[in-house]
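name: query_chain
kind: protein
chains: 1
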Amino acid sequence: MYRLFFPGGTLNQLTQPSQRPYRILIVDDADAVRESLGWLLLDEPNLAVVGDAADGSGAMRMALELEPDLVILDIELPDTDGFHVTRQLKALPRPPLVLLLSIHSDELSRQRGAQAGCDAFVEKGVGWPSLLAVLQKTLNDGRLDPQR
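structure:
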């Protein structure tokens, strides 16, 4: 069984009416995860992967350069953890939405993610339709300016 966690939210509207795709940055130390997510997101017309990184320092570098709308972020990274990176991302002048993606299913990890400022938390292994629903919900609830 997979559980999805939205700090303070519920699943509702799953479409994005903007004129340009939302920009997504994928951060995970596993090449296979980054590549798989990238391939899956190719078929989504309102989502565009603009970059990926394998560690926290790469995530920050890419976020500063690319200004993504949303970062899909693994908790376990080789140089830091996703909670620390989330706090750094949220301190940027144009902070992205952050979706933490993790093998951890414990309440403490979800609480730490919420305290760090994540916008959603998904356990790895959740099916693609569920992950896509979380992505869309997070983007819709984030109310980003589609012209940004």
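note: The two ends are 37 Å apart (CA to CA).
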